[in-house]
Amino acid sequence: MLTCNKAGSRMVVDAANSNGPFQPVVLLHIRDVPPADQEKLFIQKLRQCCVLFDFVSDPLSDLKWKEVKRAALSEMVEYITHNRNVITEPIYPEVVHMFAVNMFRTLPPSSNPTGAEFDPEEDEPTLEAAWPHLQLLELFDSEDPRERDFLKTTLHRIYGKFLGLRAYIRKQINNIFYRFIYETEHHNGIAELLEILGSIINGFALPLKEEHKIFL
């Protein structure tokens, strides 16, 4: 079990030094505390969600605390959806850290360890055991088609919302294609990236900017 090492967290995270099973703290609901304390409680819940549970070797372990984490994530989503100006400056780095801890990891070995190309028609993909709670990943090369599909949807939304990132996103997609063509000759997410690219190109306004012409 991996944990967040932030100071001030109310989680009992040092499993190696604790006596007995892992026992995180069940925090209050954000709506049940005064407004002045909500930011602090929100950060505590973010840190609480930095604990990673075992979905591979023992998927039935820590079921109670997996549910505590799931409920905390759902509560935070509801809180920021229905309240304005709640994402304050101290919360931003906590959110980024929690996302990174939960979402970014090394891809599992290929289904074909000998180096043969993965064939989606013939080969069984390596399905991520922890995938049901992993939905936002910058890993289009995953063999898990569910992950690629959710990532495709997420990238569409990020591209639509963050105008300042559009040129950067297009450049990174180009870099993946260059690496695929000139180096690896294999990438599991090319079809999804081409679909995203099609949507991006359809959104170009006329007359085309010089940057868009170079991109095409």
TrEMBL record:
UniProt-listed Pfam families: B56
GO cellular component: protein phosphatase type 2A complex
Annotated GO biological process: signal transduction
Organism superkingdom: Eukaryota
Gene Ontology molecular-function annotations: protein phosphatase regulator activity
Gene3D superfamilies cross-referenced by the UniProt entry: Leucine-rich Repeat Variant (1.25.10.10)
Protein family membership: Belongs to the phosphatase 2A regulatory subunit B56 family.
Listed name of the protein: Protein phosphatase 2 regulatory subunit B'gamma
Organism whose genome encodes this protein: Homo sapiens (Human)
